[in-house]
Amino acid sequence: MPFNIIFKQYGENAILIEWPKVISKEILNDICDFSERIKQKNIKQIIDINFVYSSMLVLYDNLNIEFKQLKEELLKIYETVSIETKTSKILWKIPVCYDEIFGMDLHFISFEMQLDEEEIIALHSNAIYTVYGIGFLPGFLYLGGLNDKLNFPRRVQPRLVVPKGSIGIGGSQTGIYPQNSPGGWQIIGKTPIYIFNINRKKPIEISTGDCIQFYPVSFNEFEIIEEKCKMGTFNLQKHFIND
Predict the structure, then answer these.
(1) What is the pLDDT of residues 44-102, one digit of tens each?
(2) In terms of DSSP H, where are the helices of the chain?
(3) Nearest of 214, 15, 190 to residue 100 by alpha carbon
(4) Which residue, 39, 102, 123, 228, has most beta carbons within 10 Å?
(5) Residue 131 near residue 210, CB atoms below 8 Å
């Protein structure tokens, strides 16, 4: 069944479409499906579509179509019943080194939550995460699906610099820092791969709606993969799973 969505004018050339404000795979699937149906209609006045969590932003050419007209067209597309089919999603397998040299907060979380570090690593790497959004930095992945046992608040005092590739926990989410930046998430490891690379034709391969699973690697394996990434010879594992 369709959700009760709200259309809002967002500046002079954008429409903000809002779903119920909850983190939900059903809502994300609905948004992904809606986005694909819009693209299939090939509305020439639409410039771009972006979505995250429970909202979608549609950028359009306001010189050739008005807000009201586009809103009515989008609503018609949304309310058109689509045939439900079983879809497959991309699952990306991302290597992570949880060594203490990278996992700056791993021991602290272990102490505070009374969990062995090995159990934290197992819980974090066994889960399959959904990419609910990309931001606040280019390529920063907001991942839902963190085990409830690892729900841990952000740092009281954010770090001025979190190293590129760091894997963090912030409340009920986990994420990857795509570049050196300030940040307040609890850092438990690091990946050697480049999530975002402006020099690539497509700076980021991962999309909202994709799935992520981390797998532990040793410090030596980390260095080998890191060197391959620098040479451009490392291929990220990519699988298809039923939704």
Answers:
(1) 999 999 998 899 999 999 999 999 999 999 999 999 866 555 567 899 999 999 999 99
(2) 25-41, 67-79, 106-113, 117-126, 219-231
(3) 190
(4) 102
(5) yes
The helix-helix angle for 117-126 and 106-113 (nearest 10°) equals 100
**Are 6-79 and 88-242 in the same CATH fold?**
no
Coil, strand, or helix at residue 61? Answer: coil
Other C-beta atoms lying within 10 Å of the C-beta of residue 231: 7
CATH match of 6-79 with 3.30.1360.40 = yes
Residue ranges per structural domain of the chain = 6-79, 88-242
- Structure-token match 């010189």, residue found: 63
Q: Describe the strand order of the beta sheet including 6-9 as a list of residue ranges.
A: 6-9, 14-18, 55-60, 46-52
Confidence band, pLDDT 50/70/90 cuts, at residue 179: very high
Among 214, 217, 242, 199, which residue's Cα sits nearest to residue 89? 242
Q: Give the class (CATH, top level) of 88-242.
A: mainly beta
